């Protein structure tokens, strides 16, 4: 069976991690969010069930994020979704914000050195709505610094940097959260 014939669960920018066994894991050099041609070479339109992107979208500008979401939209099945996790601009911790800020904390080899945006729950849902998705927030902080969590199941896509799975976030204090949203193609 060719890749185009399977019910596809896809991880974008996996970074060599495999938090979702059995899923197709890709890197930017294999599948670029901004290059629809690379997608068309691997997938048919309306063929992907789930796309998971953990700490990927912050490496794009807002407008590149809209473009990337539109590319994903074309290849997702109706009812399919993007499970997206990004750093949370409303998490009230100075050290965290310094680490995830645009340009990162300093060294050019730091993973955040090419961050182009830090989303909050309003800006990320707006970005996905602009691309034609409906959204459901899973984990996020609001403007007052209050944490919110809606039920989500790891069998539908594990986000490691979450309250649910990251050992740093177990117990009373959250140390390294993600803003997590499901963007659903209707």
TrEMBL record:
Any matching Pfam family: Methyltransf_23
BP terms from Gene Ontology: methylation
InterPro entries: SAM-dependent_MTases_sf
Protein name: SAM-dependent methyltransferase
Molecular function via GO: methyltransferase activity
Keywords: Methyltransferase, Transferase
